[in-house]
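Problem 3 from the worked examples.
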Amino acid sequence: MMEVEQLFGWAGQSALCGWLILVLLPRNKALIFIAQYLLPLGLSALYSGLILTHFFSSDGGYSSLASVRVLFENDAVLLAGWVHYLAFDLFVGSWIARHADEIRLSRLLQAPILIATFMFGPLGLGLFLLMRAIMTQPMPVQSEENHHAY
């Protein structure tokens, strides 16, 4: 098995490639497929291999914060946790990019949302959901009675 540090580097570079596709490159089906499916699938395979080979032989668990701390003392499980974030955040970022294009959100406005998703996952998702709610709000219809020309 590759060294944990090597896997860490590979996972980070793979995720970064996906984020660069989303933020900098033109949108087309092939690139979106790579960013939304191919790279997260590779990261998911790495996660699965790490978690299946190390989780059950590790101390700790999910019952308390102290148990999680002990669980992540194992470098392979810690890497699995990191790869979990990389895979899910990239998938969510791709979802955001696709839906942002559908509502015609400018790529200049998408970039900071995608960067926030890359760096802080749920913060970026929250920003996009708020932006989408604002942009898809129906415009109020003015009635003739309320519309006076002076």
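Problem 4, a separate protein:
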Amino acid sequence: MGTLTFTATMSIDGYVNDAAGDFQWSGPRDDVFALHIERMKGVSVEVLGRRTYELMQYWQKHPDQGPEADLEFARRWRAIDKVVASSTLAADGLGSPRDRLVADLDLDELRRIVDDATGAVEIFGPTVAATAIRAGLVEDYHFFVVPMVVGGGTRALPDDVRLELRLAEHRIFGNGLAYLHYTTD
């Protein structure tokens, strides 16, 4: 049985993108990217929405040459199963045999995914994660907080939820980015 985790890179005011939808300000430096690669070791399943899935196809199709960190992230990304929550994507639009389409990701289906997983199930994207967060299914939260205020956009966490979390790990990087890992236990 796996555990459900939520990971978000966000501005200090809690947004994963700005009001125009731009998230380029959140691109990780090498030291932060190395932590993402390390963290991926424990992920066996990635649950994501269509837009995030399409964005992450870069890593599925990434060439087998370039910086070692990029190659390692691509290898790890390709090695995990992906569940794409989308009512608009067609099954033939999936990029790998490891990928599965779920038109309606309800809590029972998400519980089955977590129960069947051999490691962490990372739910990636605030829209897809909102229902699981509200239901209290997420056990681990990984926040990469960029020292920037963007003033609006897509919120990392739903507005209508209250969580009591315990800090399990934290790191501050040279550019002021804070990595915060919280658990619900």
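Solution to problem 4. The radius of gyration is 16 Å. The longest helix spans residues 50-61.
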